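Please predict the structure of the following assembly.
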Amino acid sequence: MSLLNLNPQTIKQLKRFKSIKRGYWSAILLAVLLALCLIAELLVNSRALMVSYEGEWYFPTYTALNPGTAFGLDYEYETNYRELRAKFEEQDQGNWVLMPPVPYNAFENDLKVGSYPPNPPSLEDEHYLGTDSTGRDILARLVYGFRIAIAFSGLLLTFNYVAGIIIGCAMGYFGGAFDLLFQRVIEIWSNIPFLYVIMIVASVVVPSFLTLVIVMAALGWMQLTWNMRTSTYKEKSREYVSAARALGAGNVRIVGSHILPNTIAVIVTFVPFSIASGVTFLTALDYLGFGLPPPTPSWGELLSQGTNQLQAPWIVTSVVVAMVVVLLMVTYVGEAIREAFDPKQFTYYE
Amino acid sequence: MKLPEQISSREITRLVSLPLFMSVLLMGGCGQVEEAIDPEGTETSDAEVGIEVVELPPIAVAEGDGLPAELPADLEWLTNDSDPEFASPDAIQGGTFRGFMLSFPLTLRLVGPDSNGAFAGFLRHNQFGPVSFHPYTRRAIPSVATHWAFGKDGRSIYYRINPKARWSDGEPVTSDDFVFAVQFMRSKEIVAPWYNNYYTDRIRDVKAYDEYTYAVQGADSKPMDEMHYNYAFGPKPRHFHVMSNKWVEEYNWKPEPTTGPYHIGEVSKGKYIDLERTEYWWADEERFYRNRFNPKRVRVKVIRDINTAYQHFLKAELDTFGLVLPEYWHERAKGEEFENGYIRKFWLYNRLPQPSQGVFMNTNEPLLGEPEIRYGIAHALNFDKVINTILRGDYERMPTFQLGFGDYDNNTIKPRTFDLNKAAEYFERAGFRERDETGILVRDGQRLSFTVSYGQPHHTDRLVILKEEAKKAGLELELQLLDPSAAFKKQQEKKHQISWGGWNSQGLSPRYWEHFHSDNAKRTQTNNITAWADPVMDELITRFRGSSELAERIELAHRLEQMVHDSGVMVPSFQIPYTREAAWRWIRVPQHIGTPTSGSIFNSQANSAGIFSSGGLMWIDQEIKEETLEAKRNGDTFDAVTIIQNDYRT
């Protein structure tokens, strides 16, 4: 701890956070999941981790595509490494293929003649959660869908927080006409029905990842402004602000290095809940068909498939369990952070 | 009842574009305003302020058009009393048939705003025109008219009305009702520009010679049956309509009397609409109409979700249900109701015009203008894999652009199939030899990549398979799912690269002018979404449209179809040459199940698909109904029944 040179307040908050077990473990688990997500290509992929072919080693995961001809196959398109593995095993000439634990990507259709998707979970086919209605691996779609949802959520959060903090702080700090004006702007702006806007946008252009983020940020930045405005108002009237001003500090310096650090608790407590709402929003939009264009892997699309095909319960079960677990963990983390930043250790009721 | 798959294939509706050069005639549409022309009309116009009753002007005829003043003496009167009957003499009258619709109609009018909902079919099928079409021979059969004759000018038809014909309110159907129909359809008051235009541009004159004889003159000469199809419009009851500036509002919920077997009975807004069998219907004993339209009442309930509707069906609250979708036929139509024989499954192969579905390439786009690339794409689309996997082998590959028009079909054309070698060969000829690091072919840095826009969310399954398979050929397809109207708009404005969709097909012969004539290639808002322009084809299309010789038309259609195939601008996808339905045991059908032109087996109304009089063949057997419900209560069983009728399979 001494290395990081944290102030005693922060150390206290960290200790407090650690002591709330379910929040702490959820945070660790989430961090692990996020880390794994970043290297998902090594875990869930139709490309092999490693191929040893005639004494040469190939690592296809992150490289350009290897056509079938590179491994003595008769086609020009991308090698099917699962078939290659079976072939090498059969030939037994010292060539081998090392596949990731889940040997499918999120887009390919694993269709076999005579069996009609969706197919139930099968260890033998390495579809651990089964396939969806076009024969794509559900686990693969869950993993990549999670990555997209979290990235979406993170980006949205950044936009919303930057706008929310700047405008909220300015409103609280300057007050007066500026504050009044923005209050009205925000009130009017918050009355725009968010779903209709998305529907209209989706009917005009195909919503891409970035357009969705922009539309959602344009309609979602207001949430944090109110809280930031209140906290800034409160902090502004403290003596240390007056002291800083007396010493000749400018507005930017006062807000940036004096007020903001003291409102950090407000910001940090909201982060996990914002992430959760970002994920839920994207899922809901995809479910309704206004989200990311197909065939992007997405939880909402899986959910909609699953609810339409209740005779294939593995689809809906997988995605509902995944959602519940992730959202629950995020909520636990949020709860623990709020607790840790709460200056009052105990509350007494009289 | 529409089957889910049929609805989907018609999501992109056909836009019929007709030139507006008959504006002179339209001027007559705005008549003078008078106080009242009808004693009944005065009451309403007194009571409601602002209603201005309008007298429709007489039929205006442009120069060069017009029917003779006297009925020509040398007419050869024709009829059809020789084609076989197709209803079952065993049919039992009576009972209530229960169907459903997904939403309640916004109006009971047949024309004007909001009159094109799903329920409109029930209304339209009960307005019989002068002739109909035999479901087997596809020839004209009597309907309201018993006889017809063709005029010397090659574009007029004379009809003799059956003196027995009555409106459902008991009034006789006369020649004047046909004259009124044209006045009505041309009037501004109905707020239906499409009809205004059609009845001015296509229908040039109508004349009543006596109470039961009238004639119609159309715009162009056509083969005989085509003339009926294009110009044999139905009558409108003059005694019922009081035209006014408020006609659209006034008649919104006033059901028009019908010439067909059913009329609107009880209406419970938002819940259901009853169609009551007209008692002593005038055609009850007529050849082609006896033993048909057997249920006494047809109740059409609102059920807002297809899954819920299916549950209603399993509880015997609906009598029949469509099972065209593979998922329904194979997965959902299981369980004790089926195993115990309470519900029977039917699969009827038919020979109806197939919607022209598939991939349409915009030749205005740089790469798609090159024929080699279009052929390459056709060979890179693995329709067979889609059919044999997610469609369970139930659909069939569509070989040509248009199909299902009998002799007009060109059966020598074989569709281009998925073949990586051929695809590679064509792409190579176009200069696409190298693959980039993602495996997509490139030519001078340009990737072989196209956007496929479409408007049917449930077709995503099919497209992702095509996309993944196309990658093998080095072709990238970017899927672009749009809202249906946005997808339609995009292709109408020719802003698409590749459009996935289809045109609904109807009538007696295929259509080429809308889709392939160069007139429609340059303009937007036309159905030539491939922007294909070929002077040779133009000439053949013009000849095809103008010809009244059946043999010549068939030969031209074959050549045109071959040219469409050779152009490679359209890759046909699937055809569904059948209907599949389930029905409770008490719903009975004739021995032959249906006709070659039955779009639905258990349709209660006259036309089950398109123009052919193939519906209304089933009946309800009350004794079997009681027996079945009794057995269901007691747990008794019958043999499970699945009937596959493939007599008409090509």
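Chain A is about 65% helix and 5% strand. The mean pLDDT of chain A is 88.
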